[in-house]
Amino acid sequence: MRHAVREQPVDAGHPTETHAADDRELTPTARGRTARPEPDCPAEVALTAVSGRWTTLVLRELMGGPLGFSELRERLPELPAKVLSQRRRELGERGLVSVERRRGFPVRTSYTLTGGGRALRPLLIELYATGEGLLAMDPSVSRSAPFE
After folding, report:
1. What's CA 112's distance to the chain center, in Å?
2. How far, in Å, are 55, 75, 94, 132 from residue 67 at the CA level?
3. Angstrom distance (rounded) from CA 73 to CA 66
4. Residue 121, number of CB atoms within 10 A of its CB
């Protein structure tokens, strides 16, 4: 007895199955329909923008307007100065924060979100809401987070 020859390739999946890469809401442009993380994938760009411990909190504080180093330290007292300096530098390199140095003694420095930094506001709001939803479904989710 011979078996019928398959008309679909082995990896084609079931004909009624949908694939995430075909979901136009998840990947409305070709940039997002990649088989591996690419530096110009919009989702990867957004995640890189907010990546790094303390980054979302620094961005959150700067959403209210320009702040100096000391003001950021006051608002985030547990954030080590070294880490704040690193995050500020990274956010500057990513084009999300600009630095303004005012003349005088002592020199005053303030950090301001650029247009790109301000554009992260909806993402931060959605990340928070999604986190709340995940915690409501399963509080143990927080135990897998990378915290010290």
Report:
1. 18
2. 15, 10, 18, 28
3. 13
4. 13
**Distances in Å between the alpha carbon of 127 and those of 56, 80, 95, 120?**
10, 24, 21, 10
- Segment 92-146, tens digit of pLDDT: 999 999 999 888 787 788 999 999 999 999 999 999 999 999 999 988 877 765 6
d(CA 2, CA 35): 36
Long-range contacts of the stretch 105-108 (C-beta < 8 A, 24+) = 108/68
**pTM, rounded to two decimals:** 0.76
How many Å apart are CA 17 and CA 25, to the nearest integer? 17
Angle between helix axes 121-137 and 55-62 (nearest 10 degrees) is 130
